Amino acid sequence: MKTYGKLLASCSIIIVLMACQSEPKMEVEETDEVMEEAIETRAEAKESIKVSLINNEGVDIGMATLEEGERGVEIAIEGHHFPSGVHGFHIHEKGLCEAPSFETAGGHFNPDNKQHGFDNPEGPHAGDIENLEVSEDGAVEASFKNDRVTLEKGEEHSLLSKEGTSLMIHEDPDDYISQPAGDSGARIACGVIYSGEK
After folding, report:
1. CA distance 102 to 95
2. CB 105 within 8 A of CB 93
3. Number of folded domains in the chain?
4. Of 18, 144, 8, the residue nearest 74 (C-alpha)
5. Cis bond leading into 24, ω under 30°?
6. 63 and 150 together in one domain
7. Fewer Cβ in 10 A, N or C end of the chain?
8. Statement to judge: residues 83 and 156 lie in one domain
9. H or E stretch including 118?
10. How far is the C-alpha of 137 from the C-alpha of 85, rounded, in Å?
11. Tens place of pLDDT for every residue, the chain, 198 residues?
């Protein structure tokens, strides 16, 4: 009888120990699943906008992708049939690209009323971007980051503003200081980021 009691007590201890060992493992697995779901949710929530770029004849010559990064907006551009060389590249204050002149896009996106140019002590505009370089065959593939703008609606520097915004490529390089657009010449390509509130 004593032997049976000891055996029963031993079995009980073993069962309890097995239960204790298995419970943390289940908690770890559940935690991993929760973390994976959170990562997927953040990835899905990341704002991304595709912008079709047209030339002065209204022909589609490229695509830009804007994505909200940790610090500002990341801009990736791919295109073809651009004039080769270096070109001014900016964000403009209105979401309207009417060929051939693209004057409907207004001036640079500039909610802080600063001066134009990275080399200007009173600049730059929020919409100023580094020059875009196009290869001799007219192809371009480049990426930029602008930490002065956001894709979050309602923010002061949001590209999804009431008036809308657009991307603009100019004929000549931006000298990063001349007013109002770096002496970058005519507007040769435009793409609506956001057309604004209707």
Report:
1. 10
2. yes
3. 2
4. 144
5. no
6. yes
7. C
8. yes
9. none
10. 10
11. 444 444 444 545 444 444 445 444 445 455 555 445 544 444 444 568 999 999 999 999 999 999 999 889 999 999 999 999 999 999 999 999 999 999 999 999 999 999 999 999 999 999 999 999 999 999 999 999 999 999 999 998 999 989 999 999 999 999 999 999 999 999 999 999 999 875
User: Is the CB of residue 88 less than 8 Å from the CB of residue 173?
Assistant: yes
Active site residues: 90, 92, 108, 116, 125, 128, 170, 187
- Looking at the structure, tell me whether residues 38 and 52 fall in a common domain: no
Owning domain of residue 54: 48-194
Structure tokens at 34: 């929760």
Give the residue from 30, 45, 60 where a domain finishes.
45
Is the whole model's pTM more than 0.70, yes or no? yes
**Do residue 88 and residue 34 come from a single domain?**
no
The residue type of 138 is G
**Whose CA is closest to 159, among 89, 97, 110, 86?**
110
